[in-house]
Specification:
By secondary structure, this protein is mostly helical. It has one domain. It has seven helices and two strands, in the order αααβαααβα. It has a two-stranded antiparallel sheet with strand order 1-2. α1 packs antiparallel against α5, α2 runs antiparallel to α5 and α6 packs antiparallel against α7. The longest helix is centred in the last third of the chain and has 35 residues. The radius of gyration is 22 Å and the shape is elongated. Keywords: Membrane, Transmembrane, Transmembrane helix. It comes from Lentilactobacillus farraginis DSM 18382 = JCM 14108. This is Integral membrane protein.
Length: 191
């Protein structure tokens, strides 16, 4: 294997490991949301947070609108969505790390890589499952408070379609990989 490719795989593996370690901290986000809901500060946080942009028609909100914002529903939806998204990201990163290690060891068409590709599909299902929760929570902020989330977990309903397309692409790659592995096995048997 050329040195530049080996070095690139090493760097990618290192970045994936770092991302995997840092992604665990994202589990703090749902905890913070639940604490904010229990304190009753979810609405204040949304209104004062720079990650939520104001929709032009909602420059001034009535106090009753602010008081009737469903804080617990928002925190619950966002927490469930965040947990599912983080689990999906962890599955995907773990599979990526192992695939990169296998490529560095020149194990290309192995059963382990097939299982790891299946893990990518599972990770994408988690991302797809997170989308309605995150989009629903963000829809609440937009409808009640006229704020659009541009920070972490800023998903919208369109993300469902994007994740479905990504799932179809990953599924196609998985099917092609399984076919290539089968052809390789048959070629080894005939020799």
């Amino acid at each position: 294997m050329p040195k530049i490719l080996n070095f690139a795989l090493f760097v990618l593996s290192l970045l994936a490991r770092l991302s995997f370690a840092l992604t665990w901290f994202c589990f703090l986000i749902p905890i913070c949301l639940v604490v904010q809901a229990l304190k009753g500060t979810v609405t204040t946080n949304i209104l004062q947070n720079d990650n939520f942009l104001v929709v032009s028609a909602h420059l001034h909100l009535q106090q009753t609108t602010i008081e009737h914002f469903p804080q617990y529903l928002y925190a619950g939806l966002m927490s469930v969505g965040a947990v599912l998204a983080v689990i999906g990201a962890l599955y995907g990163l773990k599979a990526l790390i192992k695939i990169l290690m296998n490529i560095r060891q020149r194990q290309y068409f192995s059963d382990e890589n097939r299982r790891l590709l299946w893990t990518f599909i599972v990770a994408q299902f988690y991302a797809l499952a997170a989308d309605p929760f995150i989009a629903g929570a963000n829809q609440l902020a937009r409808t009640y408070l006229g704020r659009v989330n541009t920070g972490y977990f800023d998903g919208t309903w369109e993300d469902i379609y994007a994740d479905l397309v990504a799932l179809a692409i990953i599924g196609t790659i998985y099917i092609l990989f399984c076919s290539a592995t089968k052809i390789k096995r048959e070629a080894e048997l005939t020799i």
